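FAQ: What does the model actually see?

It sees only this:
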Amino acid sequence: MTPAPVIIAIDGRSGAGKTTLAVELAARLRMHHKVSLFHLEDIYPGWNGLAAGIERYVTTVLSPLRQGDAAEWVSWDWANHYDGRTHVTLPAEIVIVEGVGAAANTARPMLDAVIWVDAPDDDRKSRALVRDGSSYEPYWDTWAAQEDEWLDADDVLDNADVHVLNRADGHAPEDVLQALNYLPALSPVLAPELSARRGLQLRAERIGAAPRAAELFHTLYGESANAVWLDSSNAASDASAYVNPEIANAAERSRFSILADDGGSFGQSVLHSWGATRLSAGCATVETTGPFFRWLDTVWGRKALRAPEGYECEFTLGWLGYLGYELKRETGGNDVHSTTPDAALLFAGRAVVIDHRDNAVWLLALEAPDADDWLELARQAVHSSARIPAPEAGGGPDRAAGDPAVGHCGVVPEFASRDTEDEYKVKICDAQAQIAEGNTYEVCLTTTVSAVDPGLDPWQSYLTLRRRNPAPFASYLRFGELVVASTSPERFLRIASDGAMRAEPIKGTRARASDPGIDEALRWSLENSVKDRAENIMIVDLLRNDLSHFAVPGSVTVSRLCAVESYATVHQMVSTIDARLRPGAPRAEAVAAAFPAGSMTGAPKISTMDILDELESGPRGVYSGAIGYFSLNAATDLAVVIRTLVMSPDGDGGRTLSLGVGGAITADSRPFEEYEEIRTKAFGVLSALGAEFPSP
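And it is asked to produce this:
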């Protein structure tokens, strides 16, 4: 008897391509392992023998193999319609069993992984008949009826670890192998395959150009189901801004824009909800359970790539997307369910990075068979968008900057608030009661305004948002029907490849005024507000503590305290906390230790999150979370999700628009002023849509 093998079942209806997938997957695995392969079609006792064949397979093949013994079984003689010869299938390090019923409920306790293969009905029938010829055609309906009967009684689809939509284009074996690496039961035995994928090589090309970013994104990724644009939409056009000490911090945050999707050989996407992580790699999808930050630690945090010479951006390909506020369940908060995924990321094996300071574009791609074609496509797109002389607000995908109806299809959305004005003011008083009782010092109370989508074009709506409210951490995220359009000015957390850490919380807001004198008075008012400075300093103290958990002792410093920065619609009070990550510290855990951003919770964080769960009438979803990247050089840069429109499917074929707004409540807060502050914060997004804040 040999050690028990790892057994992988490939199941699915006839004609889905299971046999081809099994053969090709076995060929790839044989590069590093001994592999046995068993086909159920060899054991079915005739065209009416699906149920009997499953029973034979489980008892005479699967059971002995599970024990590490050789399986002795009798094949079916399809020509004579009777039992045929006796065969032996030897155990091996990996055993692949494939066929209809390979993962039946009686078999699943003995399997390590289940792959379900699917294909459109018409494709399945034509493939099966091409494979088996005219001998199968008279029995297609008979066999299909047996499959229906079996599937009605067996929940095999719900118990599959990997789902494959087999397009018969040759990509399925590599996609499945990539997906299998994420299964904890298989990852130890697939270590050689995983190691090979970590031996990545980066190709980089610098182009001296200043392309229209919107035009470039639209050209490269306009048709991509999943795509991300981390958009420094307020990038300084004057290079001197990057060395002017008064505005250098803001300019540094706006230097680079990153454009990517999940296409190509290495492309993947991830959605995490309620403790389940669903990863798609090409045509294969795998679902695992467990905490999100634990999953993140398995895919990020190690230096797999070095930046090319002369490249100063910290992003060297990797994961991009958002982390939703409800991930707080993993960092000390309560378990609240959101209607949107708790996290959505894509893995970019190729990307475009725009350096706004140096008027340059970097094309990055992992070495792969399709890298040359993509680099040529991206090169042409950069040159094409750079040749257009019009400014960013000109024609093409940007349309006219002054058109308030851009993206509206002639209809302005009507927003309603989760809390009326009176209800919100009552909650402010309730928060102050918690402060008076000593349960918290500061409560970042939020609410949500939402509307039925009247038919907005998400892309055009974002272009309008970014023109009217440019911001250093603006972003456009598309994950299928879910679109996130953000104009955030606030950095949550940056961890550089060398371990430098930085948080830049915003607390304190004033609306801008068109009159320069009034505008300067508003700025002065914010700069000298005792209340706003107190709010900001409390969050600075909280973030000093968050960063200290994984920082080198003594390295936590506050390099800026309560500085005022001005944006298109608001003045903001910003502080900067720096630290140095301990060598060898787990970077995903360092992110988790600071999540969610203290500027969106209040202080102390955990007890205040409990209070917020009681005061607020629903989940925050994407709002109050983080948007950014997790790079292959172990760097991350994340923005706080504020000033952000979320466009999410409603389940009935439509879409819901939502905007989260809030403010910090302290003991001396005035309910009227706090309510006016959330109206001010909502103005930039709502006005870009032609909408107004809901009436009381």
